[in-house]
What does this fold into?
Amino acid sequence: MSLGNVFNLTLLHQTIVQATPLLLTALGGVFSERSGTANIALEGIIMMGAFFGYAGTYYTGNPWFGIICAMAAGVVVSLIHAVVTATYKVDHIVSGIALNILCQGLTGYLLVVLFQSQGSAREFVAQLPTISIPFLKAIPVVGPVLDAVFSQGPLVYLAFILVIVSRFILDKTVFGLRFTSVGEAPQVADSLGVQVAPIQYAGVLISGLLAGAAGAQLTIGTMPRFVYLMSGGRGYIALAAVILGKWQPTGVMWSSLLFGFFFSLADNLQGTGFAIPNEIFLMLPFILTIIVVSGVIGHSEGPAHAGKPYVKEL
It folds into this structure.
């Protein structure tokens, strides 16, 4: 099989689709980490979002209601993380890992209880519609190509719009500047009258909202059926995208697209006869992340107080 059968419009389309849940989750991770809270629970939140997005659509027949259920589930899980870390000062990593285990067990249990199935739900549900941009087809020569690539679901468009919105909020608003101040020096922010705990709560809840939407993208946005553990490590991958993107919305977008490209490439190479194992392409983004974090290429340093419980000095 020729490379032309691998590097084609389908690969580009799949790259955008694969990058979307990573981008939504990573943007939430940016808000959480820049407010000083490491949210390792993103993996579990994606699982919950995927399950409740499917369940909400299954029982109502409305995928839009499924999105609401997915995002609500994400907020509930993230609220637990916020209470445990911001209020009770529990170690962020311990809380996140515990929630991931809880979500893993809970989704498996609910799959049996609600759908009498193990491993995957038997029935498919309504899927979110594909939205085409009207004027793209009218562009001479490249119009049909652009239309084929950018005919995507609503959550895909939302993810990329949120890159612009997130950058504006974090860099141009008082609310965003408070996020940065709490994540870098909560003692200083507190002394200047910034309420640290509410900012941390806001960051974690935003991350839960977006990771829940990412879960919905996996089910009713891509494959309208729930499969147990279908998050497939995307929560951890999104955290790697945050690091590679240097805790900036635009950087996170490019790193998510990079991850999505390699995942799509690995899928497209299956069964083609190429000698390079698919796993090599899945490893490359992580290797690049390690290189960036180590400082060999560029420099990546997160918020100074991210992941550290803040205890107010008396």
User: Anything to note?
Assistant: The chain is about 65% helix and 0% strand. The domain at 3-294 is CATH 1.10.3470 (ABC transporter involved in vitamin B12 uptake, BtuC). Residues 9-34 form the longest helix (26 residues). The chain has a mean pLDDT of 89.
